[in-house]
Amino acid sequence: MNQALAFIGLGIMGKPMARNLMNAGYELHVYARHPEKARDLIDAGARLHNSIADCVRSAAVALTMLGAPADVEQVYLAPGGLMDSARPGTFLIDMTTSSPALAERIFAEGQKRGLRALDAPVTGGAKGAAEGTLSFLVGGAAADFERCRPLFSAMGAKADFMGPAGKGQHAKAANQILVAGTLSGICESFAYARRAGLDLSRLFGLVSSGSAASRQLNALGPKIISGDDSPTFFVKYLAKDLRIAAGEARSAGLALDVLEAALRNCLDVTARGMGDLGTQALIHHYEK
Questions:
Q1: Catalytic residue among 15, 172, 236, 240
Q2: How far apart are CA 123 and CA 169, in angstroms?
Q3: Fewest beta carbons less than 10 Å away: which of 86, 200, 217, 240?
Q4: How far apart are CA 170 and CA 273, in angstroms?
Q5: What are residue 97's phi and psi, to 5 degrees?
Q6: Does 240 qualify as catalytic in the annotation?
């Protein structure tokens, strides 16, 4: 595979992922709406372009890590976007948590143009992006997944093929339902314990090694106790992910009560001006 990559979306997740690709020896071309976000990558050898079209023109693979489905639709399908600008044979890897239907649409449009699209949302958060330990849930064509496996290995520890286009996004929705349920349980437990007058640090020391133990509890429990709302993943993005999952569940005729409650609570925290805080800020829903 040609070593030249185009990378679009240099936020809290995208920038460290792009850096790991550079560290693996790939030639990186970047486009950013806010070029200052790319400064350290440029200093390390990445090439900044003024448009998506220029960025993707000489790349064998275009990777995107964007904020929301609307951003994905704009970058891929708007005039002058990836579909219009990529050469036939280019791989298009969208790592945004997005809509399964949009992933299917991008795949179908790509097929018409000789482009190979994969939906490959990630789990592992900003820490996993920085450390190169992300997991990728990939939908599309199996042969295209295998061709791109070295790229996933450069950015993460695991990558698995979930099935045809859109299945990567469905798998990520299932993951986020698990995340939301666990996070809600942690926040409700701590809210109850605090109201009961318990020492949260002592409680955490016990429950974190028992049957309630989880990676989320270990990562976010101490932050909740200390009042540290700094983000590794934004509340507003979790709300966006849960909105997608809830919409898919409703369309499938599923009544997922915990998911719906978690979505309402994340939207409440976001509406109160805390959307740019870490997901552990969900605790504030219970502190009104």
A1: 172
A2: 11
A3: 200
A4: 29
A5: -75, 115
A6: no
Listed in sequence order, the residues at least 6 apart from 229 whose beta carbon sits closer than 8 Å to its beta carbon are: 223, 274, 277, 278, 280, 281
Res. 288 pLDDT band, cuts 50 70 90? confident
Structural domain boundaries in the chain: 4-164, 170-287
Q: Provide the b/e sequence for 202-218 (b: ≥16 CB within 10 Å).
A: ebbeebeeeeeebebbe
Q: With a cut of 90, say whether residue 132 has pLDDT above it.
A: yes
| Homologous superfamily of 4-164 | NAD(P)-binding Rossmann-like Domain (3.40.50.720)
CA dist 121 and 271 (Å) reads 26
What pLDDT digit, counting tens, does each position of 192-225 carry?
999 999 999 999 999 999 999 999 999 999 999 9
pLDDT for 187 equals: 98
pLDDT > 70: what percent of the chain? 99
Which DSSP string do the residues of the chain spell out, in sequence order?
--SEEEEE--STTHHHHHHHHHHTT-EEEEE-SSGGGGHHHHHTT-EE-SSHHHHHTT-SEEEE--SSHHHHHHHHHSTTSHHHHSPTT-EEEE-S---HHHHHHHHHHHHHTT-EEEE--EESHHHHHHHT-EEEEEES-HHHHHHHHHHHHHHEEEEEEEESTTHHHHHHHHHHHHHHHHHHHHHHHHHHHHHTT--HHHHHHHHTTSTT--HHHHHHHHHHHHT----SSBHHHHHHHHHHHHHHHHHTT---HHHHHHHHHHHHHIIIIITTSBGGGGGGGGG-
Looking at CATH, the fold of the domain delimited by 170-287 is given as N-(1-d-carboxylethyl)-l-norvaline Dehydrogenase; domain 2 (1.10.1040)
Cα separation, 255 vs 50, in Å, equals 46
Q: Which two tokens stand for residue 278?
A: 């870490």
